[in-house]
Amino acid sequence: MKCIRAKPNGRCCAAIAVSVTTRKSPPCIIVAIRRDDSILLAQHTRHRNGVHTVLAGFVEVGETLEQAVAREVMEESGIKVKNLRYVTSQPWPFPQSLMTAFMAEYDSGDIVIDPKELLEANWYRYDDLPLLPPPGTVARRLIEDTVAMCRAEYE
Questions:
Q1: Distance between CA 14 and CA 1 in Å, rounded?
Q2: Which of 39, 47, 58, 118 is deepest in the core (most CB within 10 A)?
Q3: Is 38 a residue whose pLDDT tops 50?
Q4: Measured over all CA atoms, what is the biggest interatomic distance in the chain, rounded to whole angstroms?
Q5: Domain layout of the chain by residue ranges
Q6: In this structure, are residues 38 and 44 in contact, taking their beta carbons and an 8 Å threshold?
Q7: Which intervals hold domain Nudix hydrolase (predicted)?
């Protein structure tokens, strides 16, 4: 079978004889950070709807997922994290990436936001949270998992 619509740098799908171009995008990371009975939540500049969520970013070339988490957290919030734990992953359709979710514990530092990335970031006690991402999102799962850990320890 011969491809009927060949594309540069593409591959031929033998089942339908059409050339398919694949795009490789860097993976994304997302992380919930806990400090005692609180979680770090931020309002991102790209979402000005009052929703507060966990920190996220892209993995750079030559960087491990763990290094990306540490770098993104430091760049966006000015804090250091420790005890990083993998939680889950999910396909991320835009920009065609894989989102890898982690939980971490606060290590040190004061919150100093990157105003290009965040409108604000603060520690929120597990029983006094702002508006959150919708259920079913990986961000919401991380927040709910962190809240459950806090409840188990502080109630």
A1: 7
A2: 39
A3: yes
A4: 66
A5: 24-154
A6: no
A7: 23-146
Span 23-27, mean pLDDT?
A: 74
* Residue 74 exposure: Cα atoms within 13 Å on the Cβ side: 11
CB atoms within 10 A of CB 58: 14
Provide the pLDDT for residue 18. 54
Neighbours of 19 (CB within 10 A): 16
Structure tokens at 69: 């988490």
**CA proximity to 107, closest of 83, 77, 72, 142:** 83
The structure tokens 């309002």 sit at: 43
Question: What's the predicted TM-score (pTM) here?
Answer: 0.83
Q: How big is the CA angle at 97 (ends 56 and 121), to the nearest 5 degrees?
A: 10
- CATH numeric code, 24-154: 3.90.79.10
What backbone phi and psi angles, to 5 degrees, belong to 146? -65, -45
Cα–Cα dist 55/82, whole Å: 15
Quick: pLDDT tens for 74-127.
Answer: 999 999 999 999 999 998 887 788 999 999 999 999 999 999 999 999 999 999
5's tokens? 């619509």
Tell me the C-alpha distance between 23 and 67, whole Å: 24
Q: Which residue has the tokens 């290094």?
A: 67
